[in-house]
């Protein structure tokens, strides 16, 4: 296998600012084109005569226990590549079908969560400081479109973040790095062909049963007939959305303590807030909510619900605004003080004269705790 260094113009196609000398980076290596190119790029950049990255480079491959002989083939290809590059390889084997059955997840969700757990374990064990995944501009475009079609909020349109913190059990943090988000998949394959470097194809990437594959093979090609630079357009949208979210999070950190109070008011002043599991109550000051702009109102409601472990949809947020008397009346939503609503995940909203109180039914809270115990934290889609 030819191991010539990557041409300089190709090396500029990835975000070098994510790497600092001494950082120990494990590439999430599936054997596919994207992750193979990322490993070759980082290996070449790490061995340049000048301006070498100076990172500690390794790879991690996860055998998901699905796809039979094809998965064995992928692992063999990964082992061969790492041996040729003299890159240390960490192998992990997981039983994705069993995990999916035990946690009532789809196979794709289970695989993603098991990958993240393996990444977390690798960093926690001291083998790496960060995991580099090979998401490209095409992955970003697919993700933004998928989120848009499902009715995402602005944070959903932020798509795949270049850097994501990984919280470790001992309180330390690691990182997920995505240095290829500015690179198209076509350029990745051209690069590999120029090196004479082969890769493996995952046949499930062509299966139309998966929404992402239909977006990749049907929707995006049709949209590119209207805008050939669609990857760039959607990537720019994701960047704008990320910056918007950073601004709004800071604004919420400033505003929430003034508008949202824990517990219920008691006679004689003060508030009572139970510490029993599943009994938390948060009260939103209606007058201050009323004087806030609509964009901030929605974010206040959603942030308060998140404190109770509930993700509000747009229709549910509209119902809460109607209950508070701050939106057009809805036929199924009462608006008088003393009225209440029950939403998804056991979220209960009660309106008093001055407050909109959110709580969660104890049963729903117990179920959420049990589910959290069973499932690893969900993160943005990572490969392999």
Report on this structure:
The chain is α/β, with parallel strands linked by helices. The chain has two domains: 8-244, HUPs (Rossmann fold, 3-Layer(aba) Sandwich); 263-372, Uridine Diphospho-n-acetylenolpyruvylglucosamine Reductase, domain 3. Helices cover 46% and strands 15% of the residues. It is built from 14 helices and 13 strands. It has helices at residues 8-11, 33-46, 68-85, 96-103, 107-124, 137-150, 154-157, 185-195, 211-224, 230-259, 286-290, 294-307, 314-323, 362-374; strands spanning 24-28, 56-63, 89-93, 130-132, 163-167, 173-177, 260-262, 264-265, 271-272, 281-285, 340-342, 347-351, 355-360. The chain has a six-stranded mixed β-sheet with strand order 3-2-1-4-6-5, with helices on both faces. Strands 7-10-13-12-11 form a five-stranded antiparallel β-sheet. α4 crosses α5 (107-124) and α6 packs across α9 (211-224).
